[in-house]
Amino acid sequence: MGMGGACLLAAVLVPDALASLALYAMGATLLGLMLLSVVSVRLHRREKGRALAAVAGFVEHDSAAGFVTDADGAILYCNDAATERFLQKQSGQNQSAQKQSMTLAGVLGDVFASPGAVLFRLQTKAQAHGAAREDIVTRRGHVRLSVHTLVGGGFLWRIEEMGERPAVGRKPDASALPMITSGRNGAVLFMNESARRLIGERVKSLDRLFPEMPVRAGDINAISTTSGRVDTMVAEIEGSAGRREIFFFPVAGEKSGNRNGWGFFDELPVPMLKLSPSGEVLLSNRDARRLLGRDDCDGLRLSDLMEGLGRSISDWLGEAASGRGLSHAEFLRLTRTDREQFVQIVPKRVLEAGQPVLIAVLNDATELKTLEAQFVQSQKMQAIGELAGGVAHDFNNLLTAISGHCDLLLLRHDQGDADYSDLMQVAENANRAASLVGQLLAFSRKQTLRPEVIDMRDTLSDMTHLLNRLVGEKVTLTLSHDPVLKMIRADKRQLEQVLMNLVVNARDAMSGGGEIRIETETVTLQDKLERDRAVVPQGDYVTVKVEDEGCGIPQDKLQKVFEPFFTTKRTGEGTGLGLSTVYGIVKQSGAFIFVDSVVGQGTCFTLYFPVHVPAHVENIAQSIEVKKPAAKHGDGVVLLVEDEAPVRAFASRALRLRGYTVIEADSAEEALKTLEDQELNIDIFVTDVVMPGMDGPTWVQEALKVRPDVRVVFVSGYAEDSFGDAQQRIPNSVFLPKPFSLSDLTETVQRQLH
Hints:
38% helix, single chain, 30 strands, six-stranded antiparallel beta sheet, 754 residues
């Protein structure tokens, strides 16, 4: 009985008319869904059949083998090329039935060692990206296996025999150059016809040819060939998935001894030169000429092509020809003018007609030398930074004592006093010395920054008068601002130093006058910016451009302008610290700086400052400090710990003049001994950070275990960042950098106590 009949019977048996109608409706709905499902399946099959027919028409006459499979790998269709290559050996079966009953993994079982893993890997990539492709070394040679997803479901596979080898430029078996492809463990995966003819047999492992493993490019090995033992030069390139492609050719023995023996030298996939002991280039291959930037190298001397040994290249080659120094590679700089490039060269000595010649294997070492230069630069900056930090610490102690005692003298002299102007000169020059020390710390990125939220337009507006005085009368200063410029967070004083240094450099580059343009703009990076070995993350930035019309900077010197003590000015006109200071401040501020220059047209420095994102309004409101009344004199006991006697004497007198009771200690150990008196009441610790023996944060942490409520003021001639983590672990502590004035010290203590 059909579903409609069942519903009708139920309606007759149920006396309730409404129930009968409901059952009729339910039966009709189910019947409609069944019909819709049948139609949908038939339409899907028809659409899939049309898609399959379209694909079949597209790949039917393709010279490469093509398969269409479902998600499980079952073959739905294959073209004539696939049938001829993979299915002909089973022609006794009905091919149509054979195709439907086989999977692609089963068909490729004789081609790949593990076809299931390869197919699964490519199919997974295709499902994610729509298509995937991989070049694979097989038992039959090199093939390219690609897969595409089909709209109606399923996958289109294409198996293409590699007609050309990208590394060599021809089909492996057609190459005159003997070639072997090996796996990670030295197993031979493939030998071309030239290799088989040279060796006389098929070998399964590199151990058979090269007992002394590993095989390296440039090595000369004696191997057994059909003509006896022959010295061969090895050249190799790394393949994918850990495979190595090893090319070798005879360089001595029966197969060499004249120029014709080097016929396939040009086909080697690594740059190589044949040299005389005096350094003359006898032969060069295609990759060597491309690396050297020359169309022809024959007849040139190696010293014409490269430099940088520090001694005569001909002497070095003479030693190599005599058998000395062959294992030592040299790094040389090419003399090409279009770009800076380095090579690593390894000479190998061989005999040709009884005379020694050299085979030089070249490797592009530009990236390696660049990394080495970066490492040397970082080491140099670290050494200079440590030196600068130590010098700054000692200078800041001296300047604290000088300026502090000068402040004490000024308390006893008013402006009408004859000594007042002399004391002000001492104070001003001490401040100038402090700014010099700050500049020394800037390029070593060890200064203490005081960041604040600023508007670049206001900063430049405040500096306009000063900058106009700096550039002089022959140079015009033009400012251009983005009307909707966003805020940034930086140390305003240090930012002014950056702008002044850039403007002064621009002025010096235009001896005959010109225009300096300063432009500000808010930009949004949708993608990260990679430039000059720096990566600027995506986001919003405020850019500041300082552009001049000066003489410009040569390209070979452009990347050195930020190095300390490097200057393009004449001797005596520049110290080489200006741009290194700029770089240090910019990097310590979390910003980026780039330089562009064209000789004879000018230079442009571009700074990227991250846009400041303010916290939530409520958080801002909570962080606003309520101004507290000034502290009264004489209402606190200070434990002053300072190992420098002049600084301790000044700080002690300054605090006592403000009415504080001061207990002095010249070391952390003495301070802890003083605190052993339980009846002694201390309100605040004022301590140096770096001292002989126990340092400031260490003894303070020990003291706070028994006196947890005492406030702390750390003072130091080093940057705050050098011990910032230690300070953060100490509650109720602040930092006061040296050199500090009398008012700086007393106001900091007052704020901490109240």
